Amino acid sequence: LILAALVIGINGLFSVWLRLGLHGKLAVATVRCIAQLSVLGYILVPIFRINHWWLTLLYTLFMLAVAAVEAVSRPTQTYPGMLLQAMPPHAGPARHGCLYGLALVVRVSPWYDPQYLIPMMGMLLGNACSGVAVGLSTILDELSSGRDKVEFLLAMGATRMEATREVVQRASRMALTPLLNTMNVVGIVSIPGMMTGQILGGSDPAKAARYQIIIMFLIGAATGL
């Protein structure tokens, strides 16, 4: 772990050398990464052992809240009630995608098995969080810079959807671009984390690839919705 952290330290040295001002943020992010993953390991042990639906659901709600807070903290433009409005884009697609994958594709029994539900929900929420953050940031920036155009269209009788159609289209493209790039190179340039973990754990690579394909499709659906 220490040897791996030293590699991150090289980035910090580059930040100091190039005067990027990122070494402090990099140090904080490194400490948070170590602390959060370590705590996660200890939290999941009793959840896996108890294996009750209400405890699993409670933890997934906590994950949802953190994802929403993280998504709304990235845009430079904000407005009142932004956090509450960011919850549904995370909750709906991630929840439905996760339940669909567990019940119909992976066919886990019971459906609330934390060994499957929590990791899958984490992957869906993590990617949905990035998509929502990029899309939300793009929409707010576009509306701020193009406010006069939107107000002109509204004054001319356009509906809210018509006045903001171009903004929504650009934001959707921006939000989906990272996912499309990942799907285009997955298996050729990169091996995703879930598949890597299964292979390192001794699973059959072909079976691990099938699981990863399922996850990629569910991530795509959750991010797009």
Automatic annotation (TrEMBL):
InterPro entries: UPF0014_fam. Keywords: Membrane, Transmembrane, Transmembrane helix. It is a multi-pass membrane protein. It is found in: Membrane. Pfam families: UPF0014 (PF03649). Its main location: membrane. The keyword Lipid biosynthesis does not apply. The chain crosses the membrane at residues 26-45, 52-73, 116-140. GO terms for cellular component: plasma membrane. Belongs to the UPF0014 family. This is Uncharacterized protein.
